[in-house]
Amino acid sequence: MEGELVAKFGIKICELPASKVYLFKEQSHRGRVIVASRHHVSEMIDLPDGDRRAFMDDVAKVAAAIRKLFAPKKINYGAYGDTGCHLHFHLVPKYEGDSFEWGGVFAMNPDRTYLDEAGYRGLVDKIAAELG
Predict the structure, then answer these.
(1) pLDDT of residue 3
(2) What order of strands is seen across the sheet that includes strand 74-78?
(3) Which parts of the chain register pLDDT below 50?
(4) CA 7 to chain centre
(5) 10: exposed, middle or buried (C-beta count within 10 Å: 0-12, 13-18, 19+)?
(6) Residue 22 in contact with residue 10, Cβ under 8 Å?
(7) Residue 84 carries which DSSP code?
(8) What is the pLDDT of residue 7?
(9) Cβ neighbour number for residue 23 with a 10 Å cutoff
(10) CATH label of the domain that carries residue 47
(11) What CA–CA distances, in Å, run from 26 to 20, 33, 35, 42, 47?
(12) What angle do CA 110, 115, 25 make, to 5 degrees?
């Protein structure tokens, strides 16, 4: 989970024991991130028990940071990748007062909200500090 493909959709925030965390460039849901396994596997069931627990611990740690920093009403979790078979979760903060997709499934890439370099840097730094 590095290189040109990742750079198209994400900005690396940090590395955790079992994963790498990326800010999703499309920020219709403020604070949306991806938590990608350090192991190159397609499915959760492909990880040994200890590695699976460590990965899910990382997902939970990132979710707690997103909740603390952005106070969403709900966090949606998506594990997709039919064509990019690498285990990863999208953590998508949902905000009740925001009519965009509240009460429904989030779009993979709504292609509507992008930030400038300073905006991305601010979010990356904020999340990285919380995950510290």
Answers:
(1) 76
(2) 10-16, 19-24, 33-37, 88-94, 74-78
(3) none
(4) 14
(5) buried
(6) yes
(7) S
(8) 85
(9) 23
(10) 3.30.428.10
(11) 18, 10, 15, 24, 29
(12) 50
Residue 33 parent element (H or E): strand 33-37
Sign, CA torsion 83/26/108/22: positive
- Whether this model's pTM surpasses 0.85: yes
Letter string b/e over residues 49-77, b meaning 16 or more CB atoms within 10 A of that residue's CB: eebbebbbebbebbbebbbebbebeebbe
State the residue range of the domain holding 87. Answer: 4-131
Q: Read off the pLDDT of residues 35-71 as tens digits, 9 standing for 90 and up.
A: 999 999 999 999 999 999 999 999 999 999 999 999 9
Q: How many domains does the chain have?
A: 1
